[in-house]
Amino acid sequence: MPNYSVFQANPEELKALIFGSDGTTARPLAVNASAELLVGGATVTGGTLDAVSAATIAGGTLDAVSAATIAGGTLDSVTSISQRSFLEIANTDVATGDTLTALPAVTTAVLGHYSYFIYNAGANDAVAQVEISADGTHWYTDIPTTTVASGSVAVLVPTRFLKYTRLAYASAVVGAATTIDVYFNAQGT
Fold first, then answer.
1. Burial bucket for residue 56 (CB in 10 Å: 0-12, 13-18, 19+)
2. 153 membership: H or E segment, kind and range
3. 3-state secondary structure of 12
4. Is residue 172 part of a domain?
5. Is 23 inside any structural domain?
6. String of b and e for 60-76 (b: at least 16 CB within 10 Å)?
7. CATH code, 138
């Protein structure tokens, strides 16, 4: 078919519909006259909601939910965190030992940026490393052992992404324990 245009030549007519599936049927997503996405028959626009408890959402930002039913279904879990959201997990006054010990793993699957801030509050040096895992059982050392001198700070930022991330720590010298404060800081995606 020589000399036949394969693409739509008029950009105004080059449009696509976006569909979602209800499990059996493909259905187009709907918007109102202002091009705002309709969710379960409701339009979400400006404002702030601080808490919802068995209420109807008229619009805005949802900060907390307690036993709320959202039109068309129930909110069972949160699968992402807004980019403006901030998460901090503090582990303070952690005593080091002679062998690497891991802090509890953090599920980092829905986080965009995250790092470990380590302050060595003790008299001796410590070592720390970041470990990552896809299954929470088998761990890979993402950032090799880093020495954190007494009275100093280190920030470890993972270089690879997997579902789980944790920090492992130990005394730098056998028998020379110290105390560290570890802060996991993250932003959502």
1. exposed
2. strand 153-156
3. helix
4. yes
5. yes
6. eebeebeebeeeeeeee
7. 2.60.120.230
87, β-bridge pairs: 186
pLDDT for residue 3: 55
In this structure, are 107 and 161 located in the same domain? Answer: yes
* Number of domains the chain contains: 2
DSSP bridge partners of 65 = 52
Q: Which of 96, 109, 169, 171 has the alpha carbon at shortest distance from 136?
A: 109
> Which DSSP string corresponds to 58-90?
-SSEE--BSS-EETTEE--------TT-EEEEE
* Cα gap 69→71, rounded to integer Å: 6
Read off the pLDDT of residues 142-184 as tens digits, 9 standing for 90 and up.
999 999 999 999 999 999 999 999 999 999 999 999 999 999 9
Backbone angles phi, psi at 12, to 5 degrees: -65, -30
What does the block give as tokens for 53? 């408890």
d(CA 72, CA 39): 9
